[in-house]
Amino acid sequence: MTADSFLLNDESVARLRAVLKLPDEEWRPSLNSLIGSAPDPTVLQAMRCFLETRLPHAGNAHAARMRDMIGVLSGELTQLSSSEPVLQDLVTRIAGVQREIDQLSATLRSAKDTLAAMLGVNTKRTVGSFRVSIGQPQASVRVVDKDRVPDAFRSLQVDKRLVLRHFRSTGEVPAGVEVGQTRPIVVVKAPALG
C-alpha cells in the first residue's frame, strides 16, 4: 500500500470497493457521490493511488472498471488543479504539516540527545519494555565552500566519503569543508506485539 493510500479510512476503502462491484450504469453516479460536492485533492489522490496499486492484480472485469475510475479521479484532480482556493488550501495544509514535522523532529532530536547524555554512549539497555542502544557519534562532513575543496575530493560533486576517509587517516581537514560529529546514534525498539 502506498503512503497516499493510508489517507483513506476504512469506510472510504469499503465504499470504493463497493463501486467496483456495481453494474455499469450505477458506478459513475456512486463514484461521483463518493467524491462529493467539495472534493479534497488529497483524498482523490489517495483513491487514485489505491486503485493504481491494485490494478496489476485485478481480474479483467475489475481492471477495466478500475481504469475508468482512475480516469474519472484524474479528471477531477486536473479540474481542481486550476482552482486557486483548492490549491491555496492544499499549500496551507502542506506548510502546516511541514511545521509539525519540523517541531516533532526537533523534539525527537532533543529527547534522543537527553537519553544519550543520561545513559552514555556505547550503551545497550532495557528500559521498561523497550530495548535502547546508544552508539558512538560519527564524524560528519559539511561542505561550507565547494569552490575551495581540493580536486582530490571531487568528482562531479564533493565526495564526502573520501573526505572522511582522508580525515580519519590523516587528521587533516581539507579546505572548504568542516568535519564535525553527528549526534549519538540512539535506537529505541518497542517490544514485540503479540
Account of the protein in words:
This protein is α+β, with helices and mostly antiparallel strands and about 190 residues long. It has helices spanning about 10-20, 25-35, 40-55, 60-80, 85-120, 160-170, and strands at about 125, 130-135, 140-145, 175-180, 185-190. Helix 3 runs antiparallel to helix 4. The longest helix has about 35 residues, at about 85-120. The chain is elongated, with a radius of gyration of 26 Å. The relative contact order is 0.09. The model has no long low-confidence stretch (mean pLDDT about 85).
Indicate the topology:
Layout: H1 10-21, H2 24-35, H3 41-54, H4 60-80, H5 84-119, E1 123-127, E2 130-135, E3 139-143, H6 160-170, E4 177-181, E5 185-189
Antiparallel strand pairs: 1-2, 2-5, 3-4
Helix pairs in contact: 1-2, 3-4
Write a short abstract of this structure.
Helix 1 runs antiparallel to helix 2 and helix 3 runs antiparallel to helix 4. The chain has six helices and five strands.
